[in-house]
């Protein structure tokens, strides 16, 4: 089964574009282009990676996944139809791709499948000196959905679309992490009472860019939603920002590269973070449990390897 190759783009809707514009340009340092009723963020050679369109609500409108060939896309569409999923043709030109089809997944999320995500000739013009973002064959980053029950949506992406399990967790919340390429996960599901998009991750090429983005985020009350920390599974050093859409943006560096041919999934026995990542979205006993797991990881001496050791 041929899975998508990477996360291509994300489209959000917003009542007001101004808060998004400040977030993308001022904090993240992305090339932000504002046109009438639309804001586009550039990270690399693609015409845009995140678009925000004016709408009646603040929400994530769709998530786009790219296939490497027309035949792989056609095979995926056949599997969706065989699974009873209604698929419609989308506006390929509006997304800057050669072909586009859309459907709703079991969680009700709008999903777009495409191929031929074209580059543009001019490079992005970042508003301040940054080292760029880790994209290319790995795609935009990763997307995480929240749901009261993560078994059904995860099974759909694995069985129908060919995503592969990286690892999973039982505490302090249930989670499943799925990969497509050498990025440890391009898609994940976390169990929470509220359903929706939990967060989008973008990865800088340098750690200093994470720190400098954090300095800017800390200037705004309530912008930092999860403190700086390091994950135990993909080794990403990151913090999370609140957005107008209700989901967060994880800003990271140092994500683990995996060998997709030999990777063996495992249960995360020591929690999702080695240190840091105080999660404001967790409450009560779950937040206390997350702290206890981090302290236990420190007592056990758990650490991510140095870059030359990985």
Which regions are unreliable across 5 or more consecutive residues at pLDDT < 50?
none
Task: Assign the CATH topology.
Answer: 2,3-Dihydroxybiphenyl 1,2-Dioxygenase, domain 1
* Terminus-to-terminus distance: 29 Å
| The CATH homologous superfamily | 2,3-Dihydroxybiphenyl 1,2-Dioxygenase, domain 1
- Cross-sheet strand order for the largest sheet: 17-10-11-12-9-13-16-15-14-18
Separate helix tally = 6
Which percent range describes the beta-strand content?
25-35%
Please give the CATH architecture: Roll
Q: Can you give the mean pLDDT?
A: 95
Order of helices and strands: EHEEEEHEHEEEHEEEEHEEEEEH
How many β strands by DSSP?
Answer: 18
CATH level-1 class: Alpha Beta
In short:
By secondary structure, the protein is of the alpha+beta class. The protein has helices spanning 18-27, 70-82, 92-95, 151-159, 207-217, 284-299, and strands spanning 6-14, 31-35, 38-42, 50-54, 59-67, 88-89, 99-104, 110-115, 142-147, 164-169, 175-179, 187-191, 196-203, 224-231, 237-242, 248-253, 266-268, 273-276.
Topology:
Elements: E1 6-14, H1 18-27, E2 31-35, E3 38-42, E4 50-54, E5 59-67, H2 70-82, E6 88-89, H3 92-95, E7 99-104, E8 110-115, E9 142-147, H4 151-159, E10 164-169, E11 175-179, E12 187-191, E13 196-203, H5 207-217, E14 224-231, E15 237-242, E16 248-253, E17 266-268, E18 273-276, H6 284-299
Parallel strand pairs: 1-4, 5-8, 9-12, 10-17, 13-16
Antiparallel strand pairs: 1-5, 2-3, 3-4, 6-7, 7-8, 9-13, 10-11, 11-12, 14-15, 14-18, 15-16
Could you explain the architecture of this structure?
- The chain is α+β, with helices and mostly antiparallel strands.
- It has one domain: 2,3-Dihydroxybiphenyl 1,2-Dioxygenase, domain 1 (Roll).
- It contains six helices and 18 strands.
- The strands form two sheets. It has a ten-stranded mixed β-sheet, sandwiched between helices.
- The longest helix is centred in the C-terminal third of the chain and has 16 residues.
- The chain is globular.
- The mean pLDDT is 95.
